[in-house]
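Milestone M4 deliverable, item 7.
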Amino acid sequence: MASAGTESISLRSLVVLGYLLAGAVTASAQQPDISAGFAKCKTIADNQARLDCLKKLLPSSDPAAARAQNTQDLWPLVVTPHPTGGREAISIMRTADTTRSDPDLAGLMIRCQEKPGFEVLLALVRPFPPLARRDIIVGSGTTQSVLHAEVSTLGTGLVLPVEPTAFTTGPWRELKELAVVIKDPEAEIHGVIPLDGLTPAMAKLSARCPTG
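Output delivered:
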């Protein structure tokens, strides 16, 4: 029987894989098989079976279709080919500190947008109603800020109203980790995401994102 810690890590891995598919599914409205398959996988109760189901949906043109450029990276760059040959989905993600985070928080993701720019999200294990709003208390040193975030269209992420530069050259550049409390009527979600290594990871991501 898997321990609670092992199950938590498995769920976080499941969410990461779901996000790799999310860009492809969202961008491929004319690909009903993929969209239907993604929806079907999300209904599977068993974690391992759900993970296996999602893996089968990944494009198979490359044996490592959704691949981390370096598995040793703290913020691995993940490239997911578009199922119809369109623009790749490109992102970096750091998983939450499992010893100091609730299992419902998967981590922090930064991904390229279709237009020039980035989207910063908190990836969730427990989905919220799509496009709903949640307040997030962010600890920055000895002070706290409240961010008004919007739930992603898939319900498995909270889009933060911040630019990645807030962590690299902006007001949070000195932070070693991001402590968050997600306010939710069902149950608050607490977590900590380490931020070391983000600056070089952002440079790598920027080089792969659309420029115009």
